[in-house]
């Protein structure tokens, strides 16, 4: 293995100092699409010294990393100059839930208005007279535009007022122009009314928005899960004895008592006692750590055996657990959302279409006499062509038709429909896609960081070899049944599977914290625990194995080798990732020797050992700043923030709830090779998205000239646009046949 680095919370001078970068998190309000995100990121990157910027549309959170601290007033000005607002207060975790419900409500209202309007329009166009049709279109169109479509209008106004455009700009212009024809018809102008077309435009746009919101919708429970780990009260040692007090009243310097099975409520240092402490939330490793006097302990970890007196050194927001909560909150803003092709193209497409619509209207108004014979010739072929409507009516007809035909509803559906189909395929392959953006991101991943325990290994220590006879093994397994240590569980499980059960009654049992356990059977004393001399077992230990020595009446009778077994598909998965040009890197909280051994077994060339949750996030950012697209695979609480910070977070399905909730993709069966399936799904899905966009634009290239020359009725244009959207949906559904 070429590199194994040990990294502590405070990096040494010889290590790369991630902490030298200045980092600030804030909220950006008023964004509605990927174009908005791109404008904000572009504005922030222009600030001097900025090294990294990420803005998340779904959560409205942003993170900025710079060489030197940038005053918040400069950040606010840069964002406000492009039309948005900065707030130092982070949005609530229920924002995605709220947006999903709002988009669903807006879509239902819009459909409730538009479907009856469409039925009436079709009946009216077929020759059946509908009383007060103009008034119905006026009220129905206005209701759709200004109630469920209000956010579309707001988004368009923000863009236009800051001299740029987005998809909502064209939808709003087309809808208002179509609705305006109804107003003009009511006041007496001899022009056709397209009020229903206005309602249809808004509705199709809202359907696309709903699908996007549904893809992004997932209950953000990671902060709640972390908060649930906090302890509300602490046993404080006072002159009157041990008193249970609310955690908020405990001060630095107080002494607290923590018993076996309890969580440590606050950060501090042990002043008395010795205990085995489960620190898996920090390191991800299942084996407890033996700690005694002068050793530091952190909040949220669990005392599995022993009794401790701890001097409190950190309270409130300074504790490890609260810092971890802050880390996950901050990491939520590190997800760079996909800059949808449709939104990028609209930067040029929308101004071009609007200019063409205006040009068409102006030419028809001022050159009506010149072009009228052309309409007369076409009227013999196409029945809806206006031959004698006059300059104003024909100009409005052409202007509205051009805007309507160009409205990017198919563009709006191109991405979300492909994502819906891909999510369905993923589920059948044991992949749960929580974030639609991850499907598009996966194809660009070139670096994958992965935890060791529970990701590359099974996460459950098990007996792999021993040299004891069955009777002795059965006796020690009965003794180990009285221990809560994870290694004891491995011994008991092995005995139940491989040794015939017999009646064995242990007489006396004593567990020695951090050393092992002693039991008596038929006047013989058995010791199971740490080897007295580790040298004979050095080769096993260097191979990431734990050796348990067994003595009978102080005479060594054998050993048991226990290890966290490598997953069956890990070696092949690493090999295939390398063949695909993706660099696998191990990032683990375990020690350097174990990391080196496991990395060698699975074929990983680079690994980081002794890594804390904070450092995992910094390593993710390090590679992102270098221009890498980073995936992170993990299963533990200590992986949650890194999963959030990466471009694509992948959680193992049998991991902790916090890791699962923090990820974009969940491997339901725990097979690391499923990452390769996720990448393949991404490649095919993105290909379909590009096809959808091509056909959407091809339709526009054909239809816009026809609308400009006045031979394409807005109603026909809307129907054609509907068929374009149906084509996008059908093409997206074919993803299931490709995988």
Automatic annotation (TrEMBL):
Residues 22-87 form the HMA domain. Gene3D superfamilies: 3.30.70.100, Calcium-transporting ATPase, cytoplasmic domain N (3.40.1110.10), Calcium-transporting ATPase, cytoplasmic transduction domain A (2.70.150.10), HAD superfamily/HAD-like (3.40.50.1000). The keyword Translocase applies. One of its GO terms (molecular function) is ATP binding. Its main location: membrane. It is a multi-pass membrane protein. The chain crosses the membrane at residues 107-124, 130-149, 170-188, 194-211, 345-366, 396-422, 693-716. It is found in: Cell membrane. Belongs to the cation transport ATPase (P-type) (TC 3.A.3) family. Type IB subfamily. This is P-type Cu(+) transporter.
